[in-house]
Design goal:
single chain; about 375 residues; alpha/beta; five-stranded parallel β-sheet; four-stranded mixed β-sheet; about 40% helix; about 15% strand
Length: about 375
C-alpha cells in the first residue's frame, strides 16, 4: 500500500512539470501498461460528488492516454459495498473489464476482481482496511497532510501523464464537496477565478442532490462531468434543481425531530445521541452533521428507516471531537450484547462512520447503546 508526502514546487497551469505525488507515478504507469491497447477499463466510483468527479476524471483522462481503450464509468448503487456485496462482483464481472479502477469506495483486504486475474487500481482516501489480494495497486491519500480526496488524487495522477488542465473544474467539484472551497489544493484559487466559485458550488450542490434524492439519478450529473467544458450547465440543470428542492423539503421536516439519549440509569452509557427519521432521501448524514455542533461531546447517529429499498436501516454517525471514534463506539455497542457488527458496518472515518443494518441488527445496536425500547 503506497503512501507519499506531497512534493513541493507545483506550478499552477503546468501540471506536467512536476508530479504532485511522485511516489505514485511509477505504480500508476505500471497499472496503465498492463492494459491491452484495445482493452476495456471499468471505473467503479462512489456516488457522491467526490466519487463522481474522480470517476469522470478517469473516464476523460484515460481516453487521452489510451485512444484504443473502451472506458466505462460506473457509479456505485444504494447499499452497495464494493468488497462485501456479492452482487457488486457479479455486476463488475458482467462488464468484462480488462482492468478495473475502484475510486472513493475504500480499500479492503477482500479486494474485488483480483481473484479473476483482473488488475485493479484503488484510488482512495478513507482508512484502508487491509491490503487487497495480489493484482491490486493501492494509491491512498490516507495519512497525508492534508489528506487529498479521491478527485484530487485522480487529477494529480492523470496530470503526471498528460495535460488535463482543462479538467481542473471537474476535480474542483469533488474537492470542494469533500474539503470545502478553501481546500489546500494548489490550483483551487485559480480554478475558482476561471469558472467562478458560484458555479462550482452550485454544481457541487446539485451533484449531491442527485444522489440524495429518492430518484437516485446519477446518470444526469455524471453526463455533464464526462462531456462538458465548464460547470455552469450542470449547475443550471432544472431536473437537478428539482431534486435539490425535494431534498431541502425532506431536510426541513427531519430537522424538527429531537435526538434520544441513553437513560441516566444506564451504567457506563456510551456518549451517543440518536435521531430516527423515515425518508427516501439520503439526508441521514446531513441530519447527524447538523447536530454535532450542539452536541460536541457525543457521537450523533441518524437512523433512516425509509432510505433503503430492502427494509434495512441506514445509519450515519458524525462527531465533532477528535477524541470520539465512531467505528470503535459502534463496535463497542455490539460487543456489549455479546455480538459483532456485520462486516460492512462501522467503517469509514473516525468522525464519520455508519452503514446499513437489517432490522434485527439494528435492534442489537439499540440494545448495545442503551436505547432499546
Amino acid at each position: 500500500m503506497l503512501y507519499a508526502q506531497r512534493a513541493t514546487g507545483y506550478q499552477a497551469g503546468c501540471p506536467l512539470l512536476l508530479a504532485a505525488y511522485p511516489q505514485f507515478v511509477a505504480p500508476f504507469r505500471a497499472f496503465l501498461d498492463a492494459i491491452p491497447p484495445t482493452g476495456r477499463v471499468v471505473v467503479y466510483c462512489h456516488f457522491d460528488a467526490d466519487g463522481l468527479a474522480a470517476g469522470a476524471l478517469f473516464g476523460r483522462g484515460l481516453a487521452r492516454l489510451g485512444p484504443g481503450w473502451e472506458i466505462e464509468v460506473l457509479p456505485s448503487g444504494k447499499g452497495e459495498n464494493a468488497f462485501l456485496t456479492p452482487a457488486v462482483h457479479e455486476k463488475l464481472l458482467a462488464e468484462r473489464p480488462d482492468a478495473l479502477i475502484v475510486t472513493d469506495l475504500g480499500v479492503h483486504e477482500r479486494g474485488t476482481l483480483e481473484s479473476h486475474g483482473i488488475p485493479v487500481l484503488y484510488v482512495d482516501h478513507h482508512i484502508p482496511e487491509g491490503q487487497p489480494p495480489a493484482g491490486a495497486t493501492v494509491l491512498t491519500g490516507y495519512g497525508l497532510d492534508p489528506v487529498p480526496c479521491s478527485a484530487w488524487l485522480a487529477y494529480e495522477l492523470l496530470a503526471a501523464e498528460t495535460d488535463v488542465t482543462d479538467l481542473r473544474w471537474v476535480a474542483a467539484i469533488g474537492i470542494i464537496s469533500d474539503l470545502g472551497d478553501q481546500a489546500a489544493w494548489p490550483p483551487l484559487a485559480e480554478v475558482k477565478k476561471e469558472f467562478t466559485a458560484k458555479w462550482l458550488k452550485e454544481a457541487v450542490a446539485v451533484c449531491n442532490a442527485a444522489r440524495r434524492a429518492g430518484e437516485f439519478d446519477l446518470e444526469r450529473p455524471l453526463r455533464y462531468l464526462l462531456h462538458d467544458d465548464n460547470p455552469r450547465p450542470l449547475a443550471q440543470d432544472e431536473v437537478l434543481a428539482g431534486y435539490r428542492a425535494a431534498v431541502a423539503q425532506e431536510l426541513q421536516a427531519a430537522r424538527k425531530l429531537p435526538p434520544r439519549f441513553p437513560p441516566k440509569t444506564v451504567e457506563n452509557a456510551l456518549p451517543v445521541a440518536l435521531i430516527t427519521i423515515n425518508s427516501p432521501a439520503q439526508i441521514h448524514p446531513l441530519i447527524a452533521q447538523q447536530w454535532i455542533q450542539r452536541l460536541p461531546d457525543r457521537v450523533v447517529l441518524c437512523a433512516n428507516l425509509g432510505y433503503l429499498p430492502n427494509g434495512h436501516i441506514a445509519v450515519a454517525g458524525r462527531a465533532a471531537s477528535n477524541s470520539l471514534h465512531i467505528p470503535n463506539l459502534l463496535r463497542e455497542a455490539f460487543a456489549r450484547t455479546g455480538q459483532s457488527p456485520p462486516e460492512n458496518f462501522a467503517h469509514g472515518h473516525p468522525q464519520a462512520s455508519g452503514g446499513h443494518l437489517s432490522p434485527a441488527e439494528y435492534t442489537v445496536l439499540l440494545r448495545g447503546l442503551g436505547l432499546a425500547e
